[in-house]
Design brief:
82% of the residues lie in helices and 0% in strands. With 141 residues, the chain is an all-alpha fold. It has one domain: Four Helix Bundle (Hemerythrin (Met), subunit A) (Up-down Bundle). Helix 1 runs antiparallel to helix 2, helix 2 runs antiparallel to helix 3 and helix 3 packs antiparallel against helix 4.
C-alpha cells in the first residue's frame, strides 16, 4: 500500500508541476500574440499544450495504476519513464517557444539541439512506460 501511495504521489506531484509550467507558457502565448516577446504564438501554444496534456496524463495514470496487476518494480519503472517523458515533452515545447527552433534534427544550434534531444528522449521513455502499462492491463483483464 505504501509503495502504491508513493507512486501515485510522484505521478500527481509531477503532473502538478507540469500544469504549473503550462500556466507560465500560457502567459507566453499572450505575450507573443501581443508582440511583447520574440517568438511565435504557435510555438508557445505547443509548449502550453505539451505541459498541460502531459500533466493531465500523469494524473490519469495515477488514477488507475494501483488497480493494475503490475509488479512494484514495473510500476516504478513505468512511473519514472512517464515522469521523464512528461518533462522531455515540456522541455521540447519550451525549447520551441523560447528559441523558435524546430528541434526535429540535430545541427550546430545549441537551442535546437536541446529541443531535439528532449523530443527524442521522450519517445523511448513513453514506449517503455506504455508497454509496461499495456501488459499490466492485459494481465488485469
Amino acid at each position: 500500500m505504501d509503495n502504491e501511495r508513493a507512486i501515485v504521489g510522484k505521478l500527481v506531484f509531477h503532473g502538478t508541476v507540469n500544469i504549473f509550467i503550462a500556466f507560465g507558457s500560457g502567459a507566453m502565448i499572450a505575450l507573443a500574440a501581443m508582440g511583447q516577446i520574440d517568438g511565435q504564438k504557435q510555438d508557445w501554444l505547443l509548449a502550453h499544450m505539451e505541459s498541460l496534456i502531459n500533466g493531465m496524463m500523469l494524473f490519469i495514470v495515477a488514477g488507475f495504476i494501483g488497480k493494475l496487476v503490475i509488479s512494484p518494480k514495473q510500476a516504478i519503472i513505468a512511473t519514472y519513464c512517464l515522469i521523464g517523458m512528461a518533462y522531455c515533452n515540456t522541455v521540447f515545447g519550451i525549447g520551441r517557444g523560447a528559441t523558435g527552433a524546430l528541434g526535429y534534427e540535430f545541427n550546430d544550434n545549441l537551442g535546437n539541439n536541446i529541443t531535439a534531444l528532449a523530443g527524442q528522449l521522450g519517445v523511448p521513455l513513453a514506449v517503455v512506460a506504455f508497454v509496461l502499462i499495456g501488459l499490466a492491463a492485459w494481465r488485469t483483464r
